[in-house]
Every structure is written in structure tokens, then in C-alpha cells.
Predict the 3D structure of the following.
Amino acid sequence: MEGERVRLSKQNIAELSGPDGLAAKLSKPKQRKKRGNEEDITQRTVVSWWSGYHSTVKIPERLLYANVNGAVLGHGKEEYQVKQRQIRGRLLKLAGLRNGVFDLFLAVARKGAHGLYLELKAGDNDTSKDQDMFMYDVRDQGYVAVVCWSAEDAINAIKAYLE
């Protein structure tokens, strides 16, 4: 499975925690019309679903959390807005912000894996080189890392990981 992209299926998800399947990159769906920030909407959908689901699997809600890498540093092209964004970015890097870290982390050990990292993508977006390296680095450390192009894929990945 290393380096290859697979479409999410029950069998693929079941293999995520196997010794050869600690990382998976799901194939991208066909291009869709972009509406707003789809990755943000997808992430909010997954987190909202988890808020209702966590109690059914007896896992504290706080164990699924977002990474600060998704923080909005601000918009605008005015010089002062650009400078503010640069300052915030530098401060976050000094505080431990790392390029490529995935969007969500489920801090629950299962089937020999230490936890589940989820990177959420939308449309024709692909992972960056930093995200690819992060995925393989955490896999080497015993984590599961999955890239998903929909909330449904992410939810199915979480459910399969917890089974």
C-alpha cells in the first residue's frame, strides 16, 4: 500500500491497522464544483458527527481534535494585513507549528496503532510534499494516517479504525 492510492472500501479500511496498511491515501473523486471552503465544511461535519458518536464507543469527545495548522491567519492584501499574517505565522512556528501535519488526530490506540491522523481534502486538491512526508513519518512510528476527500470517507475511516 505504500505510496499507492486506493479507493476507500470496507476492505481497505479494515487493512488500515494491519502491519502493511498503517498509511493509506484514498483516491480522489471526480472534480466537483467548488462552493466556499469545502475542506473547512468537511472538517466541521466530521467534528460535529464525532460530538454525537463518541459516547456510543465510550471515548471522550476531546480525544478527536484539530491541529492548529488549519488556523486562519487572516486575509487581505493591505500591507498591514500581510505583515500581521507574517507575524502570526512566525509566532505559531515558534510555538511548534509544523508544515504538513494532518488536520485531525484521534488519540486512541487500536490494533497496535497509537492513533489515527486524518487529512481532509476537497475538489482537486492533493497532499503537499510535507503532508506526504508527515504521513510516512507517523506511519513509521506506529500511527495510522489517512487522506480523505469527503466527510463520509473520514467518518468511515474513524469507524473502521475503532472496530
User: Anything to note?
Assistant: The domain at 5-68+76-162 is CATH 3.40.1350.10 (Trna Endonuclease; Chain: A, domain 1). The chain is about 40% helix and 15% strand. The first strand starts at residue 5 and ends at 6. The radius of gyration is 16 Å.
